[in-house]
Design a protein that fits this description.
InterPro entries: CheY-like_superfamily (IPR011006), NreC/VraR/RcsB-like_REC (IPR058245), Sig_transdc_resp-reg_C-effctor (IPR016032), Sig_transdc_resp-reg_receiver (IPR001789), Tscrpt_reg_LuxR_C (IPR000792), WalR-like (IPR039420). It comes from Actinoplanes auranticolor. Keywords: DNA-binding, Phosphoprotein, Transcription, Transcription regulation. The protein has 212 residues and is of the alpha/beta class. The chain has ten helices and six strands, in the order E-H-E-H-E-H-E-H-E-H-E-H-H-H-H-H. It has a six-stranded parallel sheet, with helices on both faces. Helix 4 links the parallel strand 4 and strand 5. The protein starts with a strand and ends in a 5-residue tail after the last helix.
């Protein structure tokens, strides 16, 4: 069973997400928090497989809670998917830098929410497609051309597809390779770029305008 925790200051949202999670045969809801301070304490105590965090919460916002649970230097990071109404660029960028294992808008629908939880568990990271497109246009200035991070052409192919939000299985299908080969490439990419997860890989690709 995938153990899921929810943090949102709106009771209706927590109930709605809880019903979606509870309807999945392989998932269970193990805790709900109404603010960031409570969310951090609960996540550290319960150690969920995946936590769903809103951004704007009382006492501590979701981005700071995310940083404490999954940010740089955290020894045993929790997989946190940010699910929010607010898709401002600075929020998305900070969430990625703070170790988010996905970024969804609340109007993405139940299917995408469930897919994001499963993706986080398997080491993938799902980003709402509309956010991905806008990040490509506005996130940050282009890096100097020719900065390929020492990646091979095939590794760059994998990175570009991962940055568009494709899962390992979808990348394998597109490139006519096995899922195991995709994971091997991503592992090599993480080492070369010093990235802790595929979200950081995607951020690297977006910043260099590698995805058209």
């Amino acid at each position: 069973m995938i153990r899921v925790m929810i943090a949102d200051d709106q009771a209706m949202v927590r109930t709605g997400f809880g019903m979606i999670i509870g309807a999945q045969p392989d998932m269970e809801l193990i805790g709900e928090a109404a603010d960031g301070v409570e969310a951090v304490a609960m996540a550290r105590k319960l150690k969920p497989d995946v936590a769903l965090f809103d951004i704007r919460m009382p006492r501590m916002d979701g981005l700071e809670a995310l940083r404490l649970l999954a940010g740089p230097g955290v020894a045993d990071p929790i997989k946190v998917v940010v699910v929010t109404t607010f898709d401002l660029d600075e929020y998305v960028h900070q969430a990625l830098r703070n170790g988010a294992a996905g970024f969804l808008l609340k109007d993405s629908g139940p299917a995408l929410l469930v897919e994001a939880v499963r993706a986080a568990v398997s080491g993938d990271a799902l980003i709402s497609p509309s956010i991905t497109v806008r990040l490509l246009e506005h996130l940050s200035p282009p890096a100097p051309t020719g900065d390929d991070g020492g990646l091979s052409p095939r590794e760059l192919d994998v990175v570009k597809l991962a940055a568009r939000g494709l899962t390992n299985a979808e990348i394998a299908t597109q490139l006519f390779i096995s899922v195991g080969t995709v994971k091997t490439h991503l592992g090599s990419v993480q080492t070369k770029l010093g990235a802790r997860n595929r979200v950081e890989i995607a951020a690297w690709a977006w910043e260099r305008r590698l995805v058209g």
